[in-house]
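User:
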Amino acid sequence: MPEIQVGDHVPEVILVGPDRQPVRLSSLLGQPLVLAFFPAAFTPTCTREMCALRDGLERFNQVKARVVGISVDLPASLQAFSDQLGLNFVLLSDYGRQAVRAFGVEDPRPFAGLFPGLARRAVFVVDPQGTVVYRWVSEDPKVEPPYAEVEQAAASVADRTPFVR
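Assistant: Predicted structure:
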């Protein structure tokens, strides 16, 4: 499946919230949206990434951007991960792999030889109408996103200036 690119409209997918209720991606639109796909809860790099987003959330709040973490972990695992880290943004489960496939960020390599279909580490910034304005995808699960770029992309959506790398 082709990867979502800058300029594409986000696909309509259904994720699962911490309350185990379905969440349509389209229901999150209407403000700048940062979608942070991560491979697996409770792993070192994912923990660092989620903590970095938590610690930088004020900068996203200043530009009225919503941050959402997405993983194929089960909702209960994501809730435990969120509680352990004291996250101040929502983690949504894509255990059915709808989103990772629709965005083209499903990692075909099995994790530890056991679990196929984890998310590659990826960040998409989406404008209020659902158009992707920033895309970052890593082939190496140990590489964290460029946080300053992500913040700049979210700010550019808020002030309607094009993001330029």
